[in-house]
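Readers of this paper often ask what the protein records in our data store actually look like. An entry from our holdings is shown next, in its original layout:
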Amino acid sequence: MKTLQAAVIGCGSIHTCHVAAIEHDSDSQLRAIAETDIAKGQALAQGYGCDFYADYHQMLRDPLIDVVHICLPHHLHLEAILAALAAGKHVFTEKPLALNIGEVQVLRQAAEKAQGQVGVCYQNRLNPSSQKIKALLDSGQLGNMLSIKAVLTWSRSGTYYSESPWRGRFETEGGSLLINQAIHTLDLMQWFGGGVCALKGAVERTFLSDLTENEDTAMASLKMGNGARGFFYATNCHSTDSPLLLEIHCEKGLLQLHHNALWLIEGENKTLLVSDQSPAGKIKSYWGDSHRQAISNFYHSVRQPEEKNYISVSQAEVSLNIVGAIYRSSQSGRWIILAD
């Protein structure tokens, strides 16, 4: 089996998850990193034992690089993905895929014409709890879903924004809480609920209004594709990063994800189904611990193109469309109908 040569563009905090996954894969190798902070990039490359580039366009000229990981600020995703595809590389990118649906349309057209595949990192779908929930719902064992509730309360400080000035600005982040932190939760909700047909939402700037020009708190009521009702609340104003609280009420039982443990509640009976393993190393516990599996799945699909086991451009577009609809609903005060 050919050893895949991988490269990472952007060395912010999330890139360590990608490097760890590459190093864990016995049939892949980190060949290069690209980072505009030259001192930082050189030091990291020396530690990783790989090549360093200050300009990723130069890195993309290396014919031996097979896969490129995009770990850049949101507003730089489009250009980097397009450049990597034009260079004949496969691309695995952090969410969001792009800033908005208009950019996604450009990416979709480029991906359809390119030789390389494009995968998007929605790693929380691969958490043990997520996989168990999806299997139970698909089996019909619990009957129809009646409602789904998700509560995400995280904390973001002034340092978080000051150290990365692209955050908290609509033109560079594409929003804030929704598109950066809560998009994973919205993705899980729509995945479990057969998509979202319509929604009414609101976004607010509250305790972080002096740090970000975008929302720090959001809520939405969702009409799910399977007929259930959805209820979503998220904030970056909490004093700590709490694990996701998720409840799914079905005809024959209640699924509850609490403190990274999934419970099935049937009347007076409460059964522990699965616990999400505590992440190791530098991965933050509230992120989920499935970057490694997501990247492994993508690499398998690169080696076996007929087995597409990753989140594609069209699949990643769904949650981004939900984010955009919440923004529009908040501005208009009305329900927004989402296209199929």
Q: What stands out?
A: The radius of gyration is 20 Å. The chain has eleven helices and 15 strands. The mean pLDDT is 94.
